[in-house]
Amino acid sequence: MSGELKPAPKILDRFANEPLTDFSKAENRKAMQEALRDVRESFGNDYPLIINGKSVETRARIASRNPAQHKEILGMVSCASPDHAEKAVAAARRAWDEWRKVPAAHRAEYLELIAAGLRNRRFELSAWIVLECGKPWAEADGDVAEAIDFCGYYARCMRELDCPQSCDYPGEENSTWYRSRGVAVVIAPWNFPLAILAGMTVAAIVTGNTVVMKPAEQSSIVAAKFMDVIQEAGLPNGVVNYLPGIGEEVGPALVGSPDVDLIAFTGSRKVGLEINKLAADTDPRQLGVKKVIAEMGGKNAIIVDEDADLDEAVQGVIRSAFGYSGQKCSACSRAIVLAPVFDSFTQRLKAACESLQIGPAEAPGTDLGPVIDEDAVSRINDYIAIGNEECETLVARDVGDLAQQGHFVGPHVFINVDPESRLAQHEIFGPVLAVLKARNLEQALTFANSTDYALTGGMYSRSPVALEKARHDFLVGNLYLNREITGAIVQRHPFGGFNFSGIGSKAGGPDYLLQYLLPVSVSENTLRRGFAPSADAEA
User: Fold this and answer.
1) Dist. CA 335–CA 314, nearest whole Å
2) What is the pLDDT of residue 14?
3) What are residue 525's DSSP bridge partners?
C-alpha cells in the first residue's frame, strides 16, 4: 500500500529586497555626509573582543586604517590569541545547548530585530564601510542593504524549514525535520565587510547554531558595529562571539578545534583550501566530521558577441571590472571579444576607462577608490608589470599624488592577451582587465571555460541562439546575459560557484540554510495506542 506524502506548507508572503539609497536626492546626500562627519568624530576608539557577552581587552591590537589616507587611524581593535579562540569556542559550545532549543520562529524574530537595527543605522554603517574599506557611497550602501536582505530572507527560509515533512502509512507515522549542527566558525572577508559577515552569521544562528565570528583584520571595526547591532537585538550571551585577530594566528585554533562543527568561510582560494584540509584532519576528540562552506573567488569573463550592443557591453564590462576597484570575487577580469567587433569595442572601452573618476571613497563623485592595503598594491602592480611585458597596453591610468596618500592603483586594460597567460588565468583582485580576441563563439566559450574557477560569467549578444548556447555551455555558477556580472541580489540571484570557486550551496538561495542543519527522520508505530500509566495514575 502506498503512503501519502504530505509536503510542508509554504509561506506565501513575498520577500521584498531592501531598496538601495537614491543618492540623487539631496536629503540622502546630506544624511551620508553627516554620517561621514559623525564617524570621523568617533575615530580613535578602542574595540574589545566580545566573548560570552563580555568585553575582553588585549595587549596586542590591530590599527584600523583608512585605505584612502593610510596615515589615518580609525581605531584600535583588540587582537585575539589562540587562547581567546579556545575561550570563544567554549562559550559558543555552552550557549548552544540552550540556543538550539529556542523555537525556530523565535530565532527568526531575532534576525528581524537585527535587520531593523541595521536599517536604523544604515548611513552610519555605510560611512564606516566607506572609511575603513574604501568603498564608494553606492557600493557601501549596497553592502548594508544586502546584510538586511540576508536577515529577512533567511528568517523566512527558516520558518519554511521548520515545518516537518510527513509521509504516513497505516499504522506508522513518519516525519523528517532538522536540527542544528553545533558551533559554527564564521571567517569573513574585507571586501563585503558587513553583507558577507552578516549573511554567514545570521544563517548559522537562525538554524540554531552558535557562532564565533572572525572578521578580516582590515574590516574589524565594521564587524564590531555589527556585533553592537547583534547585542542590541538581545541575543543570549555566547550565541555570537566577536573575535578579531590575525588569521594566521587564530584561524588554525578555530578551524582545528574539536568543539567546532562547521566552518563558513569567504576569501581566497589558498586560505579556503587550507581550511578545508585542516577541517578534514579529524581530531580524536571530535564527535563528528566538520562541515565546510567556502566561497573562494573567480576568474570571471564577459563574452562580447559580434552582434552585441557595444555601448551596453562597454558599460557592463566597466562596471563589472572596476566597481570597487575590481575587488569583488564576481568582478570581470577577462573580456572575450569576437574578432569582427574587437577594434570597435576596445576603442570605446578605452574612452570609457579614461572618463572614470579616481579618488577617495568618501568623495561622492568617486567611481574608483583605493584598494584595501599596501600588500594589495604590491600584488596588483606585479600583475601590471606582467601585462606591460607580455601584452599590449590599452589603458594605464596614473593616479598621481593619490599614490602618496593612500593605496591607489589606476585602471589598467591589456589587449590581445594569451588565454593561457598568468594575466588570463590568475585571480588578481584589482582594477586590471585582460581583453582576449576570439574567432567565433565556440572559441570564446573555450577561453571562458579555460580556468579552474567557475563563479560568474556574462555575455552580451542579440542572438537568441547564442544566448541559449551560453546558458548550457558557459560553465559558471552565476551567468548574466546582457547585464553586468556583479551585484547579485539576495533571492533574485542566489550566489556561488563550483570547481575551485567554492564548496557548498548558493548564498541567498532557497537551499543555503540546509548546509547549517542536520536532517532527522522519526518513525513511530501507531498500531497500538496503549501507553504505560504515569506514576500519578498508579498512585
Assistant:
1) 10
2) 77
3) 172
- Residue of 175, 203, 170 whose CA lies nearest to 188: 203
Q: Is 157 a catalytic residue?
A: no
Q: Could you give the angle at which helices 342-354 and 310-322 cross, rounded to 10 degrees?
A: 50
pLDDT for the residue numbered 244: 98
Give the count of beta carbons closer than 10 Å to the beta carbon of residue 493. Answer: 16
State the catalytic residue, choosing from 79, 151, 329, 391.
Answer: 329
pTM: 0.94
Which of these, 289, 287, 294, 206, lies nearest to 513 by C-alpha position? 206
**For 242-257, what is each residue's pLDDT tens digit?**
999 999 999 999 999 9
**Gyration radius of the chain over CA positions:** 25
| Closest C-alpha among 92, 96, 50 to residue 254 | 92
Give the residue carrying C-alpha cell 553627516: 34
Using alpha carbons, select from 100, 155, 41, 16 the residue that is nearest to residue 520. 100
Instruction: List all residues 6 or more positions away from 539 whose beta carbon is below 8 Å from its beta carbon.
Output: none
pLDDT score, position 534: 66
- The set of cell numbers assigned to 503 is 564548496
Residues facing residue 184 across a β-bridge: 211, 262
User: Quick check: helix, strand or coil at residue 59?
Assistant: coil
Q: How far apart are CA 445 and CA 341, in angstroms?
A: 16
The neighbouring-strand residues paired with 55 are 50
Query: What are the angstrom distances between the C-alpha of 364 and each of 29, 74, 107, 148, 410?
Result: 8, 20, 38, 23, 18
433 SS3 class: strand
Place of cell 568618501: 362
By the 8 A CB rule, do 13 and 190 touch?
no
Task: State the cell numbers at 94.
Answer: 555552552
**Domains of the chain (ranges, CATH numbers):** 25-296+501-522 (3.40.605.10), 300-481 (3.40.309.10)
Written as nine digits, the cell of 103 is: 523555537
Cα–Cα dist 102/144, whole Å: 27
Which parts of the chain sit beneath pLDDT 50?
1-6, 8-9, 11-12
CA distance 207 to 180: 6
∠ CA 465-471-475, nearest 5°, is: 135
400: its cell numbers: 598621481
- Which is catalytic among the residues 18, 132, 146, 295? 295
d(CA 205, CA 97) in angstroms, rounded, equals: 13
Res 538: pLDDT: 55
Residue 1: per-residue pLDDT: 33
329 is catalytic: yes
Rounded Cα distance between 368 and 46, Å, is 30
Residue 274 — left, alpha, or beta (φ > 0 → left; ψ -120 to 50 → alpha)?
Answer: alpha
DSSP string over 464-527: HHHHHHHHHHS--SEEEESS-S----TTTS-B--EETTEES--BTSTTGGGGGEEEEEEEEE-S
- CA proximity to 184, closest of 223, 147, 214, 153: 214
